[in-house]
Amino acid sequence: MPPQPHILMCPPDFYGIHYEINPWMDMSRQAEHAVAVEQWNALHAHIRAAGARVSLLEPVPGLPDLVFTANAAMIYRQQALVSRFRHRQRQGEEPYNRRWFSENGFEVVDVAENFSFEGAGDALFCGDTLYAGYRMRSDAAGHQEIGRMIGCRVIPVELVDARYYHLDTCFCPLAEGEAIWFPAAFDQYGQRAIREHVGQSLRDCRFRVRRGGRDYMEPLIEAEQAEAERFACNAVVVGRRVITNTGCDRLHAALAERGYEPIATPLDEFVKAGGSAKCLTLRLDGEEAASWRSH
Amino acid sequence: MTSQSLTSSEGMPSDFAFTEEVEISGHIIDSLILPKVLDSITAGGGRFRIANVTIGQSRHDPSYAVIEVSTPSEALMEKILAQIADHGAVPTTKQDCRRALADMDGAFPEGFYSTTNQRTEIRLNGHWIEVTDQEMDCGVVVEEASGRVRRGGREIETRRDSSTWVVRCIPMIDVKRGMSIVTGHAGVRVFPVERVAVRSDFTFMSSGVSTEKPKGALVREIARDLVTNRRGGGKTLVVGGPAIVHTGSGPALCQLIRGGYVDKLFAGNALATHDIEQALFGTSLGVHLADASVAETGHEHHLRAINRIRRCGSIRGAVEQGVLTSGIMYECVKHNVDFLLAGSIRDDGPLPEVITDVLDAQRQMRAAIRDVTFCLMIATMLHSVAVGNLLPAWVKVVCIDINPSTVIKLSDRGSFQTVGLVTDVEPFLRALVQEVQELEKAP
User: Fold this and answer.
1) Which candidate among A99, A224, A273, B436 keeps its CA 20 to 30 Å from the CA of A79?
2) What was the ipTM of the complex prediction?
């Protein structure tokens, strides 16, 4: 019996667009604070309803992006590989993240100083492999270092579209051999690496589609551009429930067809800062798709 | 683990004059990072040569590649290096060396840097530091030393108030748990022997092994080197096999020893045994050296010789007691030539000085070769290869053997500095002594 899903969130008390470090952010287009609080509360309720326990990181004035807990660290068993942010504007979050993990029973692990690394925003397990986005916020060599530290296979994939600056904005593992993705966010090599490795080691991949009387294994669900821009790939997965921003109907239909339970909840105020459901959460007991969680 | 070599083109034309070595590690095959880096180099107008690649065997094993990037201009090099750095490919010379602590005695951590016999430097805190005790097939240990440290087989004093790095080659067997061992290729640079000043009078022979070479000219060059080495205060090591005695060239070697041309002698039990047999009974392996006739019960002579020396306690003892009065070993004792006899499994006796623990023999040889500047290897495959492995690349080595495969084998083991001469030992040593005498006559 796997442990109860456990998720870290940070209330949006001090959330706002205070700087511009990605193409979504525009200081002239502020988030409406009351609406943001309402949207965050709704997401929190959906996660609780899906059966997860939620822990809260205390908000800090002057750190508007602390709300995006996905970037606090990458979790591997009881280790929190804490982030080292690329942008000065977010580096102030680091001591608060470290403190929370060390006070809550995690071993705080640092990646080498000369690398940027933005936690679960750029490092997602699918099966026994860690998929790692690089160039925008995290460094490829740093990901390889992490692979050596925890002894797992790392597939660094280059992110080529600034709007999808973190891996979790364009790639979302659902289960050990299944993922949602937006291919145009990756270069040719990254697309090939993802196609070649996601789900390919699983004989019992559940994604099968029937074409011309034959079953085909289809481990990857491709998000359309319009839905990718609504952060369709930035989904919170709890069991078979998949929670995303609204406006991702085609993805939801595909998920439903494959036996998932998609849930739409409005998160537009956070999209203004370049984040959505997944960015607002950090899975503390291992993502559903991480094989180390169940083994 | 497997290794392979790959180039982007047949050789590198000379207009690609700028070369930089980069390394990349991790799951570079599965993630297509390696082909991507190689494609970036060629698309950017550069060329590559994969100098070394190690492919992980299982899904979880990382792979590792060292790539030599070449470009026609420095500007293009900078551009390409910046591009591939994003994918994790880093110039090996622009970072400090990586180190890992030895987790057990007698073995390196995985991924250790394996040394060559060429002059090597490693980068620590931005400074390049020369590796001492250079030897191939070792690791590199970094010690932060204050006070007394071991270097080159002996203890030296360092200033107590400053911390100094001591960086040296260390054989696997001498690794102690907790030692800081260099891993990977980053922050390590190697200077091929061509870039160390090579004297012009020796370079013409650097064409490897051939039976077709004009032997007279080669012997003259070797004689000149022997004389120059002695005059310059260098140390000459002779590594010899028993064929020196069997072929009757013992007296020639004795002449060189008496002339002060030999500082050290490395051999096995056999050379010393047959030399002493010859001194005591006039035979070598029971054969009279004077007329090649077989002595009656001559097969016992070598055993009786060993026995007599053992009864004296040592070769030196036998000389001092007046039992041994001629021959190579006698001359060594008389002329203070350090001799080191390393044993092997088929030895009779052995003679008292023979070191029967091979690791101990290796250690003693390692300590004894540190000041050697010239080495003559004569008619012994086993000892030549052993010494060739220990010597740094800049020590000149001349290997003389009737069997070309001995000389080739030595070259194949990476002793690039070896000059080979395929010839019978006796005429070689006779000619060498003559040439040395000619040179001595000259002012």
Assistant:
1) A273
2) 0.86
